[in-house]
Amino acid sequence: MKFLIAVSSEQFSQPTLTIGMQLANAFQAQATIAYVEPPVASLYADGMNMTRETMEKWGIPQPGVEVLEWAYRFIGEAGYIENYDADIPFQQSKLVNKARHRELVLPSTFSDKLRLIMRQGDIIRELRHAVEEDAYDVTIIGASAQRKMAHDLIEYINSSTFVVNNFNADLTYKLLVCVDDSKRTRQAIRTAAVVAEALKLEVEVLTVSKTTRFGTGYSNAHQWALDYLEQKGIPHQGIKRTGDPVKTFIDEQGTDKILVMGSSSGSALKKFFRGSKPQQTLEASKGPILIIK
Amino acid sequence: MVKIKTRTQHSRLLSNILYWIDKNRWLLIALLVGLVLNLIPTPGDISEAGWRTLSIAVMVLILIVSEALPLAGVALFIAVMQVVMGIADSGEVASTFMSDAVFFIMGSLMLAAAIIHQGLDARLALGIIRITGNKTSRIMVGLLVISAILSSFIGSHTVVAMLLPVGMTLVRYTAADKKQTVNLSALLLFSIAYGATIGSVGTPSGGARNAIILGYWHDLNITEIDYLAWMKYVYPLILVELPFAVLVLRWVFKPEYKNLDSAVRKLKVKVAHSGIMTGQQKLSIFFFLLTFLGWITLSQKLGLGIIAIAGVLLYLAFGLVSWEDIDRNTNWGVVLLFAAAISLGVQMRRTGTALWVADNLIGLTGDMMAASMPLRDAFIMIITTTMANTLSAAATVAILGPININLGGDPVTAGFITAISSAFGYFTATAAPATMIIYSSGMVRSKQFLRAGWRMGVVSMALLMLVTMLYWPLLQ
Asked: Cα dihedral sign for A142, A147, A151, A152?
């Protein structure tokens, strides 16, 4: 598997990197840490180029290189890098230009397990291109205050998405898996099982019906989830609730559960104008949320 | 199975189409606005061609503000639309794309690329520190003043590119932890950016906007202001603005360190290896002075653009810079955009669009603007400053220039106010090249731009009004 972890700064990306590397490790996946530099107005491109050249001459790294250096040292000290060398110098000259991004190549990133890349442009566009080019399975990103970001992340990035919202590394989380009769529910349960097993987390299986009657599809899916987790030996409990699904998901999640749900398989046009359950949940959620595709 | 696959493919295709629409919505909005303007009846007091030209200008404004197309794409859009909408034939569009003003912009950008290649930044750092000593308050004044003087001749982005590493190095040598130098970073970096922004109006070669206004005055047979005359009008304003910039910056960003002894010492060691000035560096300064002399003495005869290009030719002929370096550091998209914006400005004038917009603006104020010159000047200044903080300064001048010049009163004053106030891009991080570049360093925060910017903006506007009312009448 391949995980793409988007970082922005030391100040804001610590939680994203912590849980991102835990997950990548759990799945024994390759982790790519990406810094997406905001787009520069093309009017100023020549000034930016000149500044970069003089800064390089003065030995001042670009902000993106500094962020990647911090990320590298952070996960190195956390024990995720084999042969981690704390004294390795970070230089702009280690940046290798690829077709649509730049890659920071260090001796200990010269493997399939870890890559450090820089891209420049609109964050959604760049993550979308990165996923298309390198077929990432999961994109991990910090939460954004922009409402539209939820729609764009779910609809335009062709991988599962983990939004690290208010993650507290000192807290013991539970997984809250939202189960219904939709196409991607089983995949969400399987993924949750792997995460729970690797990170030793308990799982709650939540099914919400708008009416007091739970249809066969919902009941079967709920039961299948419980059986699956039982079979895998993962501590779990089932919860059935009645009410508005999105509101119930959020209420049940609180701040100490990681919400896991399948993405919507409805019409793209409908989702564009009216949104979807995962999108509305992501917009309202106060905690981390993993949306499976 | 095949049916499911087909449905998935359709869903994917639809999702891709929606993505394209979503990411290009401003392009579609611009086209839609253009279409609507062309479908509604043309107002009686403007020609068909004038109305169509206005619709192109509106579409272009949307495209530039939203960056829905790359700059070069907007330039091509202007060229294509002028011909397709029957405003001018292809030969006329081609001829309006190239003028001495465009040569001048192109030459100035190429000269800047040639100068940056000479490695004068280390020498500048040494020079500034020798004059200012180790005190933070004096270093910031040094950076501000040197930045202003240099940018008035070679453009703000070149100066910031040379001085930013100096400021950043001083901050990094003072403390490794960024949290300990938040205000120091802002004070030094803003001094560089504000100096460069203030200075960039000082001479015609300080910024593309200045060349565009000169071009309009020439094309409209209004006046033939030469390089030195421009300086006489504008340089006093720069000299008055600089002390205010010092006050504003010191008031807003109180530095954590009053003395930068250790940082200055380390900086001296760092740049000491650059040794004595090389022959190549001396020659490059000499060629720039020669170009400057040409601008002062020969611009009426040869044109500013040809002199700038001759300067670049000298750098190339003597091997002071390679074509590859010039090519890499010159924003050809900007050159093309300015050429296109000037071409559109010419059509706005020719078809009567500029006059119609100007008349309607005057009408909107109940003819108050026509009766009171200070009111007209203030109006030009406010609208230009507002637009320049959302558009680029030069694009603002290219589009607003012909309108402002037609607002009644003295067109020279209107042109100067347009050029100068378009440089008041203090309010946001992205309003001017100098501020954008220091922002991209990651050492200053976006909120700091407004904190210092609104004060600097208000002071600059007040000073410009004073210069307009008290000083310029003495020159006429």
From this structure: negative
**Domain containing residue A179:** 174-292
The DSSP code sequence of B127-190 is HHHHHH-SBHHHHHHHHHHHHHHHHHHH-HHHHHHHHHHHHHHHHHHH-SSGGGGHHHHHHHHH
For residues A171 and B448, what is the distance between their CA atoms, to the nearest angstrom? Answer: 35
The answer to whether the Cβ–Cβ distance between A44 and B433 falls below 8 Å is yes
Look up residue B184 and give its two tokens. 């120091």
How big is chain A, counted in residues?
Answer: 293
The reply to whether A17 and A137 lie within a common domain is yes
Residue A106 has what DSSP assignment? -
DSSP letter string, B207-247: -HHHHHHHHHHHHTTS----HHHHHHHHHHHHHHHHHHHHH
- Distance, in Å, from the CA atom of A157 to the CA atom of B237, rounded to the nearest integer, reads 52
Nearest chain B alpha carbon to A39? B440
* Residue A169 within any structural domain of the chain: no
Residue in chain A nearest B168 by alpha carbon = A60
Q: Which two tokens stand for residue B402?
A: 């012909």
| Domain-located, residue A148 | no
Q: Judge whether A44 lies within some domain.
A: yes
Inspect the interface and report whether the beta carbons of A42 and B22 lie closer than 8 Å. Answer: no
B18/A57 Cβ within 8 A: no
| Least Cα separation, residue A85 to chain B (angstroms) | 21
Contact list, B121 vs chain A (CB under 8 Å): 54, 57-58
Please choose, from the candidates A144, A151, A282, the residue with its C-alpha nearest in 3D space to the C-alpha of residue B23.
A151
Give CA–CA dist B271/B123, Å, rounded. 8
Question: B41 in helix, strand or coil?
Answer: coil
Number of domains in chain A: 2
Residues A124, A185: one domain?
no
If asked whether residues A181 and A133 sit together in one domain, one would say no
What is the distance, to the nearest Å, from the Cα of residue B427 to the centroid of all Cα atoms in its chain?
14
**One domain, residues A63 and A125:** yes
Beta-carbon pairs below 8 A across chains A and B: 114
Least confident stretch, A117-126, A280-289, B218-227, B254-263: B218-227
Q: Which of B414, B420, B340 is nearest to B376 (CA)?
A: B414
The residue type found at B195 is G
Contacts 24+ apart (CB under 8 A), A192-197: A192/A260, A192/A290, A193/A228, A193/A229, A193/A232, A193/A234, A194/A26, A194/A27, A195/A23, A195/A26, A195/A258, A195/A260, A195/A290, A196/A229, A196/A234, A197/A26, A197/A232, A197/A234
Write the pLDDT tens digit of every residue in A108-164: 655 668 889 999 888 999 999 999 998 999 999 988 766 677 788 888 898 999 999
DSSP, collapsed to helix, strand or coil, labels residue A275 as coil
Q: In the structure, what pLDDT confidence band is assigned to residue B145 with cuts at 50, 70 and 90?
A: very high
Distance of residue A180 Cα from the nearest chain B Cα, in angstroms: 21
Which chain A residue has the Cα nearest residue B434? A47
pLDDT in tens, B160-203: 999 999 999 999 899 988 888 999 999 999 999 999 999 999 99
- Please check whether residue A165 lies inside any domain of the structure: no
Reported ipTM: the value is 0.80
CA distances from B109 to A70, A222, B129, B308 (A): 36, 67, 28, 9
Describe the strand order of the beta sheet including A30-37 as a list of residue ranges.
A95-97, A102-104, A114-120, A30-37, A2-7, A138-142, A160-164, A289-292, A257-262, A174-178, A203-209, A236-242
Contacts 24+ apart (CB under 8 A), A109-113: A109/A72, A111/A82, A112/A30, A113/A30, A113/A31, A113/A82
The predicted model scores a pTM of 0.80
Q: How far apart are the C-alpha atoms of A230 and B292, rounded to whole Å?
A: 83
Contact B400, B361 (CB under 8 A): no
Q: Which among A44, A48, A268 has the least Cβ separation from residue B11? A: A268
Q: Is the domain of A185 the same as that of A269?
A: yes
How much is the mean pLDDT over chain B?
Answer: 88
